[in-house]
Specification:
Blueprint (H helix, E strand, L loop, with lengths): L6 E6 L6 H14 L4 E5 L2 E4 L2 E9 L5 E7 L12 E3 L1 H13 L3 E9 L1 H6 L4 H9 L2 E8 L4 H7 L4 E4 L6 H14 L2
Parallel strand pairs: 1-8, 1-9, 2-7, 7-8
Antiparallel strand pairs: 2-4, 3-4, 4-5, 5-6
GO molecular function, one term: ribonucleoside triphosphate phosphatase activity
InterPro entries: Nuc-triphosphatase_THEP1, P-loop_NTPase
Protein name: NTP hydrolase family protein
Length: 182
């Protein structure tokens, strides 16, 4: 019996376009439809309308850990860095991704500079995507890293998220596709 081909969708958009919001709604809808969905989402923490932190949430369990805090200039060697990462939360997230193998739907929000340029961060997610050990994967990639991602993997679909998009319409389209290809 031939191995089933994995299906990869890249979700991309500028900072604050709504990529994580889309992922959160997809998780909710897929779980309501009893579709097995695993992976990580990274919702922001806001105070008075300003993003001050980032959480990491294991989709399978709903458990969350604080992953990063906004702390411009914290790194004297690279003063333009704005986010200070909690490496314990990153390790925990990688453990969650290892358990996400064999998923019907895998979501990774997001793969960024750490992963794509430094092979750090969600390294277990990189390995999982490289292995194709999932049925469908939806991964969030910033536009400036699309070329790198497309060289590494051959995505089947792209979803471009722009500010003020209709979240529910897009969620319905993606979920319809996932149900039809199940």
């Amino acid at each position: 019996m031939a191995a089933q081909k994995s299906d990869l969708t890249i979700i991309s958009g500028q900072k604050n376009a709504g990529k994580t919001k889309l992922c959160l709604r997809l998780v909710e809808k897929l779980q309501q439809d009893s579709i097995q969905v695993n992976g990580l989402v990274s919702p922001g923490l806001y105070q008075e309308g300003h993003k001050v932190g980032i959480l990491v949430r294991d989709i399978a369990t709903g458990e969350e850990k604080p992953m990063a805090v906004f702390d411009p200039g914290w790194d004297p060697e690279v003063p333009e860095r704005e986010w200070r990462f909690n490496m314990g939360a990153v390790e925990w997230g990688n453990e969650c991704l290892i358990k996400a193998a064999h998923s019907d739907v895998l979501i990774i929000d997001e793969l960024g500079f750490l992963e794509m340029e430094q092979n750090r961060g969600w390294t277990a997610g990189l390995g999982l995507l490289d292995s194709g050990d999932y049925k469908h994967a939806l991964i969030v990639i910033r536009p400036d890293l699309l070329e790198t991602a497309c060289k590494r993997w051959k995505p089947n679909h792209f979803v471009a998220v722009q500010e003020n998009f209709d979240t529910e319409e897009l969620v319905d389209k993606i979920c319809d596709y996932l149900r039809e290809s199940a």
